[in-house]
Every structure is written in structure tokens, then in C-alpha cells.
Design a protein that fits this description.
This protein has 229 residues and is mainly α. Helices cover 63% and strands 2% of the residues.
């Protein structure tokens, strides 16, 4: 505790040379900004210690997550091999963390990994993959998201999971004219959380706005269905 108090005091001073070495566990208790600052003042060998904690199955999830993110910040491009290893981990939070970290280190590689993890068994990992795919400039990215929208693992007992509304929201940001009928079909989807994004997409591709700001969404959907028919 005394060491941590000293570290926090020194972070706010100019006496950086006097900052003592710390354990990874001690460092991870600090706020993120201070954590990164102190970590970058440690010997280069400190990176290996951080990675060791990240892959230590005996450590709690929160510690391992923070350690992997810190390793990415410390190692930059040289951390990619460890991030790729994490993307193949049996632990969902490591796969999730790897996607978040890879996005900052190598956008193309993170997209490649996301294309695999968008089918991951863990919903939060699939969601992180959607975020990565959404930022890709690959023309095939949109087709991939449309394919994932109705995959059976994005439903539970035939009920739509929230990742589907996430996907439609992404697709509706910059809808393409040839996708009009796909958005039209979403107006009849049993998950009404998809309807608002579908309507917004149709407004963008057609240049039409049905109803006004006060019109309830269910009424807007009805107006669009009538317009289309």
C-alpha cells in the first residue's frame, strides 16, 4: 500500500526517475492513465511479466483483462503475437479483449480475426466482432453482417438477441440503395427493436420521410408498409 501511495504521489510530480519498480498486480489497481504511465517507466522485461499475468488461469478475469490491454499498450506492434494467442483462448473475455486491443494495433488483422469471432459461442465476443467489422472498408463486410443477422446463434429460444439490433444499426448508418428490400423485410421482423434502424435506412435510400417527429414508431412502420405495398 505504501508503494502505491508513493507511486500516485510521484505521478503528479516531476520526480519520475525516483519511481520504484512495482508488481503487475499493484499496477493494475491504479487508474488506467496512471497505470500506463508507470508501466512505461518500468524495465523492458516488465512486458513479459504483464503478459504472464494475462495468461495466468489462476488470476481473476478483471485482472487478466487489464493485463492484456496493458500488454498491448506496452508492446504496440510487438504485442500482436500475444494478442493473436489471446484470440484463440478458451476464455471468452480473453478473446473479447484481443479484439479490442488488435483494433488499435492492426486494423486489417483485427478485421481478419473478427470475421472468425463473429461466429463465436460467446455473445459479447460476437458483439465486439461486429464493432470491428463495422469499421472495415472491405466491401464484403456489409454482406457478412447481413449473413450474420439471421444466424441461429443470434437467437435464443427463437427470441432475437440484442446483437441483431446492433447489426441493423450498423447497416443503417450508411445504407446502400440495392439493400432497400432487405430493410423493407425488417419492418416485419418480430423484434421491434430493429424497426427504427430499418425505417431510418429506408428514409436515407429513398429520400422520403413518412410521418413526423411525433409519429410513434409502430405508426411509421405501418406507413412504410402501406407505401411499399
Amino acid at each position: 500500500m505504501k508503494t502505491l501511495c508513493l507511486i500516485i504521489l510521484l505521478v503528479g510530480s516531476s520526480s519520475f526517475a525516483a519511481i520504484p519498480q512495482v508488481t503487475v498486480e499493484e499496477l493494475l489497481t491504479l487508474p488506467e492513465a496512471n497505470r500506463k504511465l508507470i508501466a512505461n517507466m518500468q524495465p523492458k522485461s516488465f512486458y513479459n511479466k504483464v503478459v504472464g499475468v494475462a495468461f495466468d488461469n489462476q488470476k481473476p478475469m478483471s485482472i487478466r483483462w487489464k493485463a492484456l490491454m496493458l500488454a498491448s499498450d506496452l508492446g504496440k506492434k510487438s504485442a500482436i503475437a500475444d494478442l493473436m494467442k489471446a484470440s484463440r483462448s478458451n476464455d471468452w473475455f480473453m478473446r473479447n479483449a484481443s479484439l479490442v486491443a488488435l483494433k488499435d494495433q492492426d486494423a486489417e488483422l483485427s478485421y481478419h480475426v473478427a470475421k472468425k469471432l463473429v461466429q463465436d459461442k460467446a455473445l459479447v465476443v460476437r458483439s465486439a466482432a461486429v464493432d470491428v467489422i463495422a469499421g472495415s472498408k472491405d466491401p464484403a463486410a456489409r454482406s457478412l453482417l447481413w449473413e450474420e443477422l439471421n444466424q441461429k446463434y443470434n437467437f435464443k429460444n427463437k427470441s432475437s438477441l440484442w446483437i441483431r439490433s446492433q447489426i441493423v444499426e450498423v447497416l443503417s448508418d450508411h445504407p446502400e440503395v440495392h439493400e432497400k428490400n432487405k430493410f423493407v423485410s425488417l419492418l416485419s421482423d418480430t423484434d421491434n427493436k430493429l424497426h427504427q434502424s430499418a425505417v431510418q435506412a429506408l428514409e436515407k435510400v429513398t429520400g422520403k420521410v413518412l410521418g413526423d417527429k411525433k409519429t410513434p414508431m409502430d405508426k411509421k412502420v405501418a406507413l412504410w408498409k402501406k407505401e411499399i405495398l
